[in-house]
Amino acid sequence: MPEAIYQYMLDASLRETPIQASLRAETAKMTEAHYQIAPEEGQLLAFLVEMIGARRTLDIGTFTGYSALTVALALPEDGRVVSLDINEQWTAQARAAWDKAGVAGKIDLRLGPALDSLDTLAAHGAVDSFDFAFIDADKENYGAYYERCLRLVRRGGLIVVDNTLWRGRVADPGDRKHKTEAIRAFNAARLEDERVALCMLPVGDGVTLLRRR
């Protein structure tokens, strides 16, 4: 999207709290800033959560906490986010932002390999109990995260997957890097997956919406 139109879109539609904006600005200074979701993508997550009346959500890949913060703000008072990551430094920044925003009590941060955390949730009775899941972690495990989410998210619930356009690299047949191939394979499998309704959007770095049937 041309920069002028993109900026107009943000100016005309983005609703972001000062704490969200501050967290995004601080994250932009980091070497890993490209892990941060776009603000309009965060607003899409909040919109979807409100639209389906979600109360229990999964956040796979916390980073500095913007997606979990945005979803927590959109949830009702009894809503909860289970957020998964392995990095204590990044998530310490997330915790600070959640505290400032007054939503820390809504967010259950679990440090450790996300697949293990998801399997633990399932083993402890969480199958079919989540309304919404957001996947934005290591790309090679997207398929595995998705399969766990299909068990944990109820019928009619949403699974949202980030980076499915991967900066356009998925459309370059000459790009054979592991992450590109993983996302390309994930996208191809979802096209044939009749367990879900599917919609891919050119928001941020590509967002795929999947509704469990």
Give structural notes.
This protein is an alpha/beta fold. 44% of the residues lie in helices and 21% in strands. It has helices spanning 3-13, 18-27, 39-52, 66-74, 88-101, 114-123, 142-152, 178-191; strands spanning 56-60, 80-85, 107-111, 130-135, 153-162, 196-201, 207-212. The protein has a seven-stranded mixed beta sheet, sandwiched between helices. Helix 6 (114-123) packs parallel to helix 7 (142-152). The model has no long low-confidence stretch (mean pLDDT 97).
Detail the topology: elements first, then pairings.
Elements: H1 3-13, H2 18-27, H3 39-52, E1 56-60, H4 66-74, E2 80-85, H5 88-101, E3 107-111, H6 114-123, E4 130-135, H7 142-152, E5 153-162, H8 178-191, E6 196-201, E7 207-212
- Ends: how far apart? 33 Å
* pLDDT < 50 stretches: none
Return the average pLDDT rounded to an integer: 97
Order of helices and strands: HHHEHEHEHEHEHEE
* Number of H- or I-type helical stretches: 8
Helix share of residues? Answer: 40-55%
The biggest sheet amounts to: 7 strands, mixed
Number of E-type strands: 7
Percent of residues in β-strands: 15-25%
Compute the gyration radius: what is it? 16 Å
Order of strands across the biggest sheet? 3-2-1-4-5-7-6
Q: What structural category do the secondary elements indicate? A: alpha/beta
Question: Tell me, what's the shape?
Answer: globular
